[in-house]
Each structure stands twice: as structure tokens, then as C-alpha cells.
Amino acid sequence: MRIGVLTAGGDCPGLNAVIRSVVHRAVAGHGDEVIGFEDGFKGLLDRRYRKLDLDAVSGILARGGTVLGSSRLERARLSEACENTEELSRELALDALIPIGGEGTLTAARMLSDAGMPVVGVPKTIDNDISSTDRTFGFDTAVGVATEAIDRLKTTAESHQRVMVVEVMGRHAGWIALESGMAGGAHGICLPERRFEVDDLCKMVEERFARGKKFAVICVAEGAHPAEGSMPYEKGAIDQYGHERFAGIGNRLAAELERRLGKEARPVILGHVQRGGTPTAYDRVLATRFGWHAVEAAHRRDFGRMTALRGTDITMVPLAEAVTELKTVPEHRMDEAESVF
Ligand code: F6P
Predict the structure, then answer these.
(1) Is ligand 1 within 6 A of the CB of residue 11?
(2) Which region among 10-24, 77-91, 126-140, 144-158 has the lowest average model confidence (pLDDT)?
(3) Two domains, one topology: 2-138+279-322 and 142-275
């Protein structure tokens, strides 16, 4: 069998572990040939690829990023690819394509699959917002980075009697904010799923200071929104999900808290630090299992589906099911987090 693999969309710790696992299972396990497309779907369309053998993936398990490179593909080029899937598969002699990516990549994978390409998807995102899988690799690493940041910020906040506002990634789903906020013991967590009241945050800070705890750390997802009228508000841009994107929430919330409380507040935007560096053991294991199962699915000709974690088992789910809606934080998870502020 000749299997193509590519990584597309934003990078994520664990991508190299999947690539390595695909190559080991396919080449050593089945005697397949594996080719890796460079820079995501662009490499597929431009026929830029290289052969991946066991040597090519040696030593990459613990490396962050992706050795294949990644990119986002414009819609027009994707449609062009969908019109030429037969020609592409024939020319590249592809028996299976394994795209590894988030919601955008899996949507593209679904379109290619519908157009006749033999596709097995592998989900990835630090945001953990892909439905149909309990977890995506990269999330555990990102939560670890954000948790460590909260721990570190507490000591400097306490020394200066400040309020720290830590902005973490998560445009539509607040999983990173929820879990790093809980693990780091943040005193407030703001998620895209529930509008927050600035008054409630001020009250929390004042109560802490009154109790002698002269600092506070608030963990805010980049997609969190203040309740209407709760702080000076500019309309944000509407994204492809119809959600309003309120840019720069960390900076703006810190400024607003400082103004209202008369206490020093500092924003800390973690940004891409959360996506960089070595994956945790959990992410390496999940990524390796996904790679193994993707190759097995290709051999069963189980196309148009993606690997997914359900409980502790890896299963295959239709790509169509995976990309219909994002997995957001349910109410009960927010209630649990609030109980330990
Ligand atoms: O999808 C993962 C993600 O990390 C989001 O949480 C974040 O908003 C986005 O990627 C940032 O993407 P870019 O690398 O294009 O700035």
C-alpha cells in the first residue's frame, strides 16, 4: 500500500508522534510505502512530498511542531483539489491519505473523501474542541503549560499585591481555560461558553483582599465575552461559526479591573507558547495510538472516517459526524470549576 500523510492547520504538540507511528505501523508492520506531503494540503496539490522511512522519523517522538510543516489552505484551492481527486490519487499512486488536523483540516478531509479520495483523518488541536472524540492530543500539553504559568504568576502577583489576568487559547471553546484554571487554582475563570460579569470578578478580588489574600489570578479564554453592559464594549468581528470575536480580552479586562478596583492589574497573554515544545507523555501516547489505528483503518479500507478516543478505546467515527459542531464546555463542568474558586 502507498500511504500519504500530511499535517495541516495550526501546529500542535504530538503531530510528530502521529507521523512516527504511521510510518512504524505502515512500513515495519505492513511493508507499506509512506510519503509525507510538505506544508499540509498545499504539498499535496503542488506534489511536494518526500518518502518517509524509519530513519526519517527517528528521534521525532518528543519534538514539538511538525517535521512535515503545516499551512492553511484557501477554499478555492481545496475546491480545485476536489475536482481532481481521481487524477491526484492516480498520479501519486495513493492508496490512502492520512491528514492530521483540526476542524478546518477535517472539513477539507471530508470534502476530499466525498470527492472520492481514500481518506482516514486524525484529529488534533490543543483546544480539545472536536466533537466525536473525548480528547485531542496537544490539549494535555497546553493545559500543562498554562497551569505552570498560573502557578508562577501567583508568586509574583502575591509579591506585588496584584491582579493577574492570564489569557489562554480557545476561541470558541474554553477547555484550556477551564482545566488550567482548575489545575492552577485560578480565582476566576472566564470562558466563551458563558458571558462573565466584571462586577463578579471585582467582588471576588475585593473579598480576597478583605480576607488578607492580597492577590488574585484570573484565567480567561481568548474567546471569552463580558456580559452586555458589563464593561466598555466594542463590537467584535463575526467569525465563520457566527460567533463574535472580542479581540484582546486579556488586555482589556486587566485595564478594566485596574480602573474599577484601584489595584494594579497585569495581563499575561500566553499565546503560541501553549502550542510549542515537547508533548506530554499523555499526548505522545494518544498520538501514537491514533497513528496506529489510522493505518489499520486504511488497510481495512475504512475510509471517510477519523480516529477518535471514546473512554479508553480508540474507535473510528465518520468525518461527517466530527465536523458538524464544535465540542464546547458544558454547564456542569463550569459549575464544578466555580465551586473551588
Ligand atoms: O486552533 C488552535 C488555536 O491555537 C486557537 O486556540 C487559536 O485561536 C488559534 O489556533 C491561533 O492560530 P494562529 O496560529 O493562526 O494564530
Answers:
(1) no
(2) 77-91
(3) yes
**Which atom from ligand 1 is nearest to the alpha carbon of 169?**
6
The response to whether residue 13 sits with its C-beta less than 6 Å from ligand 1 reads: no
Q: What is the CA radius of gyration of the chain?
A: 22
Q: Are 162 and 254 in contact (CB under 8 A)?
A: no
Decide: 116 and 85 in contact? Cβ < 8 Å. Answer: yes
Determine if residue 174 is labeled as part of a ligand binding site.
no
Contact in structure between 56 and 23 (CB atoms under 8 Å): yes
**Region 142-275: CATH code:** 3.40.50.460
The band of 232, judged by pLDDT with boundaries at 50, 70 and 90, is confident
Q: Is the Cβ–Cβ distance between 22 and 295 less than 8 Å?
A: yes
Per domain, the residue ranges of the chain are 2-138+279-322, 142-275
pLDDT band for 47, please (50, 70, 90 cuts).
very high
Instruction: Say whether 274 counts as a known binding-site residue.
Output: yes
CATH of domain 2-138+279-322: 3.40.50.450
